[in-house]
């Protein structure tokens, strides 16, 4: 069970330990600091953060008021109580105006401290829940705005086909990104270069580190523009289809999985491709280049959202004259809870532009994180007369039943 955390700050060791002992009886996890600077450093370092800070005012170095001013805006869910020998109303009012929850005048009375600490902790937990709720509401609203904007554009002109609307959407995005919207860092670097000193010939003397930063961000910007240009190309030109043997498809899956091994190792997961039991005399209509893109995106998505030390499995089967390729992974946990898989309401939404179930996972993902990877996959498959769906699967291989998420691509078979 996770305990609520309290930080007690006082330069008097006896008072510090007395307050800590009282709070420990409330089953709180109590930490102590000897002055404001010590407290500030511990607040910055501690993860998860403290719920309640109890501090003295007069301390050497950084005093209580300075500490409160430092942290009140940085840690909005932290509730603060003051325990001080100052009983002058002017000082108490001044301190309370800083956003302090309560003020106790020394000497500390056990019953008063414990009663007010319980109230402060209740306020802290409510404040934390409210902040979390507001963040979730903001994320939810962002998704809804993107979704409604997309839907509104899709319905805005009946003479346009849905493909035409999507084509315009991606084209506009490419133009906006090319003009610099969203690439504020590149603009900032340009400003920094213009502010750099010049030599006698009027040439800018630019720090090599700045050039390296410029190169990294330019490469990223170029990748983004290339990505959108590629999507636009699919809309404009379509996909030329070829008659491909199931054996060549299986070989492409193996090669694509091999290219993702380093990415998988960096995320501490493994990729396993099932044994090839596909008939050699059957074919599908596809395109190896775009088929590779589909499998690559699905593997990157699985790697990004998989629990550490788990397997990503690629299965190839034939069912009712259809080739089915399924990418299975065990999804990341939600806190300490076991994953529930894909919820019903997300089964279709995850293929829509800009929609992402988990926005916080961006590092080392080998994707541009615009919420368009699965959209591109579905778009490519539609142009190859194939389909994709996502489902939850029960995994019975361990001691307990667990949930895996599977993306299944289906191609009609031809002879």
Would you give an account of this structure?
The chain is α/β, with parallel strands linked by helices and about 425 residues long. The chain folds into three domains: about 130 residues, Response regulator (Rossmann fold, 3-Layer(aba) Sandwich); about 80 residues; about 170 residues, 2-Layer Sandwich (Heat Shock Protein 90). Helix content is about 45%, strand content about 20%. It has twelve helices and twelve strands. The strands form two sheets. Strands 6, 7, 8, 9, 10, 11 and 12 form a seven-stranded mixed β-sheet that branches. Strands 2-1-3-4-5 form a five-stranded parallel β-sheet, sandwiched between helices. The longest helix is centred in the N-terminal third of the chain and has 46 residues. It is elongated, with a radius of gyration of 29 Å. About 5% of the residues have low confidence.
Number of strands: 12
Question: What percent of the residues sit in helical stretches (DSSP H or I)?
Answer: 40-55%
Give unreliable regions as ranges: 172-182, 359-368
CATH architecture of the largest domain: 2-Layer Sandwich
């Amino acid at each position: 069970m996770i305990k609520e955390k309290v930080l007690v700050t006082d330069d008097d060791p006896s008072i510090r330990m007395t307050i800590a002992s009282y709070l420990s009886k409330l089953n709180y996890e109590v930490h102590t600091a000897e002055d404001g600077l010590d407290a500030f450093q511990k607040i910055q370092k501690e993860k998860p953060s403290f719920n309640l800070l109890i501090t003295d005012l007069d301390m050497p170095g950084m005093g209580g008021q300075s500490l409160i001013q430092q942290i009140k805006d940085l840690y909005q869910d932290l509730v603060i109580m003051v325990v001080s020998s100052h009983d002058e109303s002017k000082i108490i009012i001044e301190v309370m105006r800083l956003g302090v929850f309560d003020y106790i005048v020394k000497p500390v009375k056990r019953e008063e401290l414990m009663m007010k600490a319980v109230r402060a902790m209740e306020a802290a937990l409510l404040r934390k829940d409210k902040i979390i709720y507001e963040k979730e509401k903001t994320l939810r609203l962002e998704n809804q705005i993107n979704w409604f904007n997309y839907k509104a554009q899709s319905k805005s002109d009946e003479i346009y086909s849905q493909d035409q609307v999507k084509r315009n959407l991606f084209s506009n995005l490419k133009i906006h990104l090319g003009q610099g919207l969203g690439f504020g860092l590149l603009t900032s670097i340009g400003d920094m270069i213009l502010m750099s000193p010049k030599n006698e010939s009027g040439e800018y003397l630019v720090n090599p580190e700045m050039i390296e930063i410029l190169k990294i961000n330019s490469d990223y910007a170029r990748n983004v523009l290339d990505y959108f240009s590629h999507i636009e190309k699919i809309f404009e030109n379509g996909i030329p289809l070829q008659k491909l043997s199931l054996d060549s498809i299986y070989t492409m899956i193996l090669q694509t999985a091999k290219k993702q091994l380093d990415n998988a190792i960096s995320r501490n997961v493994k990729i396993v491709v099932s044994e090839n039991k596909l008939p050699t005399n059957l074919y599908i209509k596809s395109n190896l280049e775009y088929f590779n893109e589909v499998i690559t995106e699905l593997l990157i998505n699985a790697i990004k959202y998989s629990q550490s030390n788990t397997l990503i499995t690629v299965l190839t089967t034939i069912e009712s004259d259809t080739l089915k390729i399924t990418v299975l992974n065990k999804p990341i946990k939600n806190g300490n809870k076991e994953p529930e898989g894909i919820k019903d309401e997300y089964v279709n939404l995850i293929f829509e532009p800009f929609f992402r179930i988990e926005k916080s996972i961006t590092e080392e993902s080998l994707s541009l994180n615009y919420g368009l990877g699965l959209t591109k996959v579905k778009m490519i498959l539609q142009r190859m007369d194939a389909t994709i769906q996502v489902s939850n699967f029960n995994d019975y291989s361990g001691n307990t039943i667990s949930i895996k998420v599977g993306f299944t691509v289906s191609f009609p078979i031809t002879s």
